[in-house]
Amino acid sequence: MEYKLIEGKTFPEVWEKALRTCWETGVEIRTDYEKETDPPSKDITAMLVVKEPEKEPKYHRAGFPMGVNDLLDYVNGVKQGIMKSDQFNPEEDSYTNRLISYQDSYGDGPREENNHRNSEIGINQIEYVIEELKRAGYSKKAQAILWNPKIDPGRNKDSPDLIRLWFRIVEDHLNMNLYMCSNDLFKANFSNMLAFYSVQQYIADKLDIPIGSYCHIVDSLHINGAYYEEVKTTLKKLEERDWQDKTWTSEDISKFNQA
């Protein structure tokens, strides 16, 4: 494996550095997601550190191939999801469902027998983090988990890639580390980072403190073999453009939202 520390001030800076690093140094490895005719994936284990996550510009134009509106829908969905007091749904495996209504006993018995009991005991981990940091900002235990060993092993695509969020207040700023077992660098990583950053924003607002660093740790940060030609084209275009032409500010994005 290749182990990489990739740092920068902003999300676009870190994402572009990660894309180049994975493309140039990633280990080639087969996965369940390529066709036999596709090249193997390029893969690194990475720690992506955004030192000033509130700094503009926040958006890399090449970072979300799904389009601006889809990106905003995804980020807003996570942001709105964690604001709910309860989001219990035994069929739902979304990040927000597990963050605000984690089902500790889920999987103990038949689904139809567990649903009602679980709906009463779902754990709101975001509220726990807020209360723990109010108690002691230096706490090492202000964390939220998503992996459930009772139901996730062997489920493949249904299992969460986001495993844990960890928070700590240092010099009166809220810092967040998050851990993923797998993250698609070209198609999903940038939108993931902005969505998870909205969780950090929400908690910082509740604590009424500024945001510190954002640290995104991934065991398998990868470029799928099926995307090789797209990535080659993207990297070539990025070499030809100035930084201003490769990014958007929050103000730029708000214009798309109003359109």
Give the CATH level 1 class.
Alpha Beta
The rounded distance between the terminal residues' Cα atoms is 44 Å
User: N-to-C SSE series?
Assistant: EHEEEHHHHEEEHEHHEH
Measured by DSSP, the beta-strand proportion falls in: 15-25%
Mean pLDDT comes to: 89
The low-pLDDT segments are 110-119
What does the main sheet amount to? 7 strands, mixed
> What number of domains?
1
CATH architecture label: 2-Layer Sandwich
**C-alpha Rg (nearest Å):** 19 Å
Morphology call: globular
The overall strand count is 9
Structural class: alpha+beta
Within the CATH hierarchy, at the fold level, what is the topology?
Answer: Thymidylate Synthase, Chain A
User: What percentage of residues falls in helices of 4 or more residues?
Assistant: 25-40%
- Please tally the helical runs, counting DSSP H or I stretches of 4 or more residues: 9
